[in-house]
């Protein structure tokens, strides 16, 4: 698999997207239906999921790949796809993680306020959205 396919696969089969939905219930903040499927909300869910999965790949590489023989790990994907050493692949994975976290923050700060205005969310609905985002950040 190439790195893009790997990230997409993890979003589909990993637990983080399910966790993102669980956060909504945990913080008791229902996302207004009008904005659930908007680009900014999807970016937040995707970057949250990517952050969880990439962090897990970094921390579990030695145990899962070297000791257990697992092959679903971004570091391993980079190693094989780019034919590079493990440390370089780990650095790339860490850079990708940082990029995804920065995208999350940028979307939350730059796009959510505009989204709330565009859809005419009232103050209570806006607070629900921001509580949800805070819940994702705190996960």
UniProtKB/TrEMBL annotation:
Domain of life: Bacteria
One Pfam family here: Terpene_syn_C_2
InterPro entries cross-referenced by the UniProt entry: Isoprenoid_synthase_dom_sf (IPR008949)
Family annotation (Gene3D superfamilies): Farnesyl Diphosphate Synthase
Name under which the protein is recorded: Geosmin synthase
Organism: Aphanizomenon gracile CHAB2417
């Amino acid at each position: 698999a190439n790195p893009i396919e790997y990230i997409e696969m993890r979003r589909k089969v990993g637990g983080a997207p399910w966790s993102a939905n669980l956060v909504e219930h945990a913080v008791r903040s229902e996302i207004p239906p009008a904005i659930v499927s908007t680009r900014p909300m999807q970016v937040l869910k995707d970057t949250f999921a990517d952050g969880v999965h990439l962090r897990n790949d970094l921390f579990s590489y030695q145990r899962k790949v070297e000791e257990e023989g697992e092959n679903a790990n971004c570091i391993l994907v980079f190693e094989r796809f780019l034919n590079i050493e493990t440390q370089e692949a780990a650095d790339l994975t860490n850079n990708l993680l940082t990029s995804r976290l920065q995208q999350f923050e940028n979307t939350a700060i730059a796009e959510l306020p505009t989204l709330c205005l565009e859809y005419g969310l009232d103050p209570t609905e806006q607070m629900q959205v921001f509580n949800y985002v805070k819940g994702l950040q705190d996960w």
